[in-house]
Structure formats: C-alpha cells, structure tokens
C-alpha cells in the first residue's frame, strides 16, 4: 500500500471537490458583505470565521480553490503542450543547431522567474488571472522540455528504437510512437509537481496584486489582505495559509506516490 499516494490523493481530492462544489453551492455568497459580522472567529454559522468586510471565509476558500486550481491546471497544460514536443524534437536532433537553439531558448526563459515574467506581461496587458496563467505557463515550458529531452536521449540508443529506425520510420514518428509513451510516466509525475508549484506561483502573484482581481477570491490575495490584521484576527492568515500548505503537500505526496507506483524498481525496493 502506497501511503503517500493515498494521503496525497485524499488531500488533493478534498480541494478539487471543494472547487467543483463551489460552482453550485457555498455556505454563503462569497462576495456578500456583512459589516456587523466582520472579523468573527471560526464557529457557527461561519465555520472559518469572517474577514474585515464580513464575508464568509469558508465560502471564499472554496471559490479561491477554484481559482488556484484552474490557473495552475491551465498553466501546466500550456507547459506540457509546448515543452514536450520541444524536448522530443531536441532529443531527436541531438547536437544539431535546432537542439542548441531549443536548449538556449530554455536557458533564456529560466533566467526570468514567473514573477518577473508576470510583471512584464502585466505592464503591457494589465493584471489578471489570464496573465498569471500565461506567466506560469511560459515558465513551465522549459521545465517539461528539459525533462523530456533528458529522458528521450537515453531511449534513442535502445535496441527497439534502432529497430524502428531501420524499418524506415521518421524521427518524428519514432518520437511520438515510441519515445513519448516511454517517458509519459515521468511526465505525469513532473506534471503533478508543477501543478503544486503552479498553485504556489498563483498565490504569490495574487499576493502582490498580479493574479486574479477582485471580486474573485484568491488565496494569495486573502493572505495579503490579512497581513495588517494578524495580531487581532489571526484566522484571516491561518485559513488561506493552511489551504495553500495542505493543497501543495497533498500534490507533492501524490507526485511522490505516483513516482513509486509507476517505477517498478522503486516498487520493488519499497515492498
């Protein structure tokens, strides 16, 4: 039994279910202000308390989960959709000018963290969740390109690939028919890790005002709003902070568990 996979899957599923449920139900309207009920501590009927505008924290966490998961999921999808083909191409053309161009382009993107990319994008197009997705997605491209290239290079010298080349298959066909299926397990595990990093990146961008904009709740902006009220309303920081911690922990545990489950060598060692 893989405990990491089970615990990580349960924690991740909890927040995914909360995000999905928020489309049809929340305990209160997440945007409804109730000034007389502001800064209430956790308890009935506000299970996680209320913020400085009297908004229900539990409802905001549910909707904020939807924002964080959507941004991270799309950003990882962008990274995989563009980075994997680039990595396969670079591996297939190892040592060529195209391989060098792709790798140096990756180095260039790595030189600018997602926050810096987001600032550049925001300066042109303005702040928002879409720009956060673009910034995080751009940063994910070289991650998947490098991992795909590294894994693919070790396969190009294998006998079954040499057989495919002798049979007359093109490099592109070999990459997608033979190389990609054999590196997919690694990409799934990396995708889980990048998903957790995407949630952290989205929270960080929202914290500095570059992510989702009001009235859309965001865990990062909830932390930013709470920083001046921690001394007399600590739940304003603890609630979104714990949501981020548990979600990232769950995804990392699930990624570790998937790595052990999908790699037969690690499975044998653990058993």
From TrEMBL:
Q: Which residues cross the membrane?
A: 6-28, 67-88, 108-139, 232-255
Q: Where in the cell is it found?
A: Cell membrane
Q: Which PROSITE patterns match?
A: ABC_TM1
The membrane-topology field of this record reads: Multi-pass membrane protein
Keywords on this record? Answer: Cell membrane, Membrane, Transmembrane, Transmembrane helix, Transport
Keyword Cell membrane present in the record's keywords: the answer is: yes
- The record places domain ABC transmembrane type-1 at 65-255
What InterPro entries does UniProt report for this protein, alphabetically?
Answer: BP-dependent_transpt_permease, MetI-like, MetI-like_sf
Family listed: Belongs to the binding-protein-dependent transport system permease family.
Q: What PANTHER family does the database record attribute to this sequence?
A: OLIGOPEPTIDE TRANSPORT SYSTEM PERMEASE PROTEIN APPC, PEPTIDE ABC TRANSPORTER PERMEASE PROTEIN
Spell out the protein name for this chain. ABC transporter permease
